[in-house]
Design brief:
Layout lengths: L9 E7 L4 H10 L6 E8 L7 H6 L4 E3 L5 H14 L4 E4 L8 H6 L4 E5 L11 H7 L4 E8 L9 E8 L6 H24 L3
Parallel strand pairs: 1-2, 1-4, 2-3, 4-5
Antiparallel strand pairs: 5-6, 6-7
Helix pairs in contact: 1-6, 5-6
Length: about 190
């Protein structure tokens, strides 16, 4: 058995906009003995995001930036990340697009999870579009964030079958379970190279 002494942990910030099920999953993962992340901050663009309750429950610093002035708010976020010595960002249902300048400062260290088999169905309404186009399969993708929407290097994907009676809602629920499985694995895969 490998020694755990000296196991490098990455100070991580999670960005959310909604319910935060991926956030909760990553918090639980971070508490495992062999986890390689330590969640130091949760950032949201929505004061009403339910996911902020998870941050409160687990006593993680949470900050809300409404992005009324994107440049100002991104600069404030960067100061927070520097203050917390963050070296990995995980987007988990974060509905704002980060600027090229922001991404450049964390190049290769921002991950996103997307509910489709990229490069198919970038952006929103992925499940509706996949069903409408009679796709046989869908899934989820963890990828690096770059300046183009949902276009960064793919780290991990999980493919699942679309059933004839699937609705966007039923497909979303099934895919979410797989998102929870692959996000920690993708983090581990990425961080072995950092």
């Amino acid at each position: 058995m490998k020694k755990l002494i000296g196991l490098k942990k990455f100070n991580t910030a999670i960005f959310i906009s909604g319910n935060g099920s991926n956030l909760l999953n990553l918090i639980k993962y971070s508490l495992k003995r062999r986890s390689i992340i330590r969640i130091k901050a949760v950032v949201s663009n929505d004061l009403g995001a339910k996911g902020l309750e998870h941050a409160k429950k687990y006593r993680i610093i949470k900050k809300v930036f409404k992005f009324k002035n994107k440049i100002d708010d991104e600069n404030k976020i960067l100061r927070l990340l520097k203050d917390k010595n963050i070296n990995l960002i995980c987007l988990a249902g974060f509905m704002k697009i980060l600027s090229k300048n922001f991404i450049k400062k964390f190049k290769g260290k921002i991950l996103n999870i997307h509910p489709s088999l990229l490069p198919k169905y970038k952006g929103l309404n992925t499940h509706f579009r996949a069903i409408k186009n009679r796709e046989k399969f869908s899934g989820c993708t963890v990828h690096l964030v770059n300046a183009k929407l949902d276009s960064g290097q793919i780290i991990l994907q999980k493919k699942i079958k679309i059933y004839k009676n699937d609705s966007p809602n039923s497909l979303a629920k099934r895919i979410l379970k797989h998102e929870h499985k692959i996000y920690p694995k993708a983090i581990e895969k990425l961080t072995t190279n950092l």
